Request: fold
Amino acid sequence: MASTSPVASTSPVVTPRIGLLGTGPWAQSVHAPALAAHPGVDLAGIWGRSQAAAAELAHTHGTRPYATPDELFAACDAIAIALPPSVQAPLAVRAAEAGCHLLLDKPVATTVAEARAVADAADRAGTATVVFFTLRFGQREGEWIAEQAAAGGWFTAHADWLSSVFAADSESPYLDSPWRREKGALWDIGPHVLSVLLPLLGDAESVTATRGPADTVLLTLRHRGGAASSAAVSLTAPAPAASYDVTVHGAAGTTSLPNGQEGPRPAYHRAVDALLTAARTGRPHPCDARFGARVTEILAAAEESLK
Reply:
């Protein structure tokens, strides 16, 4: 008589293969080491605009360099991108068209057309996307954002994110970042601020911007439902003034964003987990490419108001 007991599967568990585009300071300090250490993915390879830098970074993390992005896409299930936004967007479209899930950096793009193209390509291909907004994936910060969004009733908020990346005595690894020099705090820090304000107060119906010293920008937003918020962002603040804070006011009182102080790698690990979950379940993550495109739309409107 044949046994009716279940037979254990001998099929091997396939670990998703993820490739990395980019070899700059952010890729070196966060993307590559976090991907190499993540038990849920296999860092399958690295491509960079400098083949020598790609070879060096790949050797450091026990993987291989690829000569072209398309060769890397063909070898992977997902692609992580650590490149300037103008380079990221067209490569993200190509990766999605190749069937790869996308772990994107912020901002997705600095033009509305390019940001929408990334989201549209992922939708057509049915690939999962996650944008790495650092605060949304921080342990304490993410929990606080979720709690305040669930509580609701917030009628106003203010954010200060003042960085000294381009201060006179800066030793930041991003001091020589061409795209940050060109686009300033509005595009480098603005996405972080919006990633917190939008889930708490709702989508922005209007935005205006005012220039301050150097690249400092003051933002004022009106949100769907009538709430209002403001923000000050800068990459040129003096080092003693560097800080970030988000405070919201509403029916529950006043509360401020906690400082997790855990560094970006644990947050990036959670972003990888979020991408794997979205790919497995087919359910979009709140920080997907469509949300990233909406952030670009708001920042583009702010930039236009500066003119």
User: Anything to note?
Assistant: Residues 1-9 have pLDDT under 50 and may be disordered. The first helix runs from residue 25 to 37.
